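Per-record layout

source: Thiosulfatimonas sediminis
name: TraG N-terminal Proteobacteria domain-containing protein
length: 585
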Amino acid sequence: MYSENYLEVILTSVGWDFYSKVTYFIWALNLHLVPLILIMLNNWRSTLSSQEMGTASVVEMRRNFFDVGIAMGVILLFWMPNAATTYKPAEYIEQIQNANVSQSENPEENAQKFTAAQQNMGVTADEIPIPPGWFVIINSTKAAVNQLKEWLDFSKQASAMFAVMGSMKVDDPKVQDELNRFISSCYLPAMARYQNRGDIPVGELSQKDIRFVGNSVFLTTPGLYKACTQQNINDGMCLGDPLTMPVEYAEQSGIETTFTNSSAQDQNGRDLTSTSTPSCYQWWTANNDDDHYKSVIYEHPGLRDTTFDAVANDAMSMDDLGDKVDGLVWYASKNTADFLDWTESNFGVGDSSTAKDLTIQMAMRNGTHELIADPDEPNPVGIEEKTKQAIVDGANWVSDIAVFFSAIKWATIFSTILRALEPGLMMIQAGLIFGSLMFMAFTLPISGFSAGSVIKHAMFILGALMLPLIWHVASMMQEGLIRILYPDAYNLLDLDISLKSMLFMIFLFTLYFILPTVFMRMMSLSGYETAQATSEAISGLSNPGRSGGSFVAGKATGLVGSQTSKAAKGVGGAYTGFVNKYNPK
């Protein structure tokens, strides 16, 4: 994805469009030749004072070769737009729209935004030619920044998942061992595949779901927990072979892994055997609608339910979570039989197993309570109308348990502050890129198409392109600070106006404004110094004898001269001593 920022795409499109018009105008009038002519005139004047015209012409040719050659390279790579390297605003806007659709935003509203931008700012939907050098630098930097942001998100997701697993307090060592194996064999490999999914569209990972390990995206995406169908493979929508239970663990658990295929035989006529274990989908849910492991019905309990059974009673008995369903809290703290009897008598279900399944389904937040509460949907367990709301309340209460489990609950407390900052941050980045593009059309010709000028612009643009990564890191640091300052806060209403709050706001201002400003300043200074060193080095190569010379060449020559002088003195002294010793007067 090129960008998440509409404003950046729009302003960059306007900037490149203006840039192309200016450069084509200068090119059409052949004004770009003026700096080249001035370079050659300057070199001719510099060599005119030489008494040996032959030597002078050689020096002038060397200067022109370097100076004019570098300028021509700058023109072709970093100044003149090329039809083979284009900026594609329509494609980038579509990427943002598709990303927003996956986040349940209105695609029609997004399309209207770009249409309004086209009308009000003159943004073209056509591809805009840009110089190939900037095309490579900008796109490669964008790709690197996006990948780093994705890695940071995955590290945060994985950290949150491990924190959730740690907070569950699974006392049964057998369940804990199975959960650990599932994480290492299914969850983490699925993370890696999700990260490298390429062009296959996959939904967004939910960080508010109690099922961190069995994330619904992993359960439904072909080639993660679940096997791909032939149609998935034909459509190019398969991420690979399904992730499965380890053979060693399956055999320890009494799950059949070896199957005889009587329809296939080896060269000696013996039936071939194959090894297969349940997919992660079957392991987690115990459902048999996966195409991977169908030779034998998977009859073991799903790890999702097993894990919940091991932690639900302990979690539901915590009084500080609220009292939305007092009876549920009370009976959940008792033994399982009393708890199931209470659900049967209050919810009107037919048997205890159904009551248990219903409660687990509510707790895992899989949407069953929504079907029960919807009058247009069938009633799957025959519950009376008067008890439907009680179930919905119970499911909502269990959602609070999910908040309790979630290690990232504090990350959303100041989301309103971050959302208020985002438009301003996006405008800053878009304005920096836009301004640099506008000036580049003029400054490169004025500077004589020097490599130093290109480096200055490149460092500035790189700094602007890396700002989203800095702000992304800042948001993660913000979350960490929230956990430290407000460990017990659930929403903004719990916060008070205090010195702690003021310190937090100052820290936010530093993260989102002062640090990026210092970073941009450092990038600009680095570009300036690098450009100076490059110019001096090129100057020294083109004319080692020029007054002032190259910094690099001068330093090297001085070092060699100094060491040579010392060596000569040493040799001379040794020779004098030898002569005096063996040839006395």
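summary: The chain has a mean pLDDT of 67. Residues 499-542 form the longest helix (44 residues).
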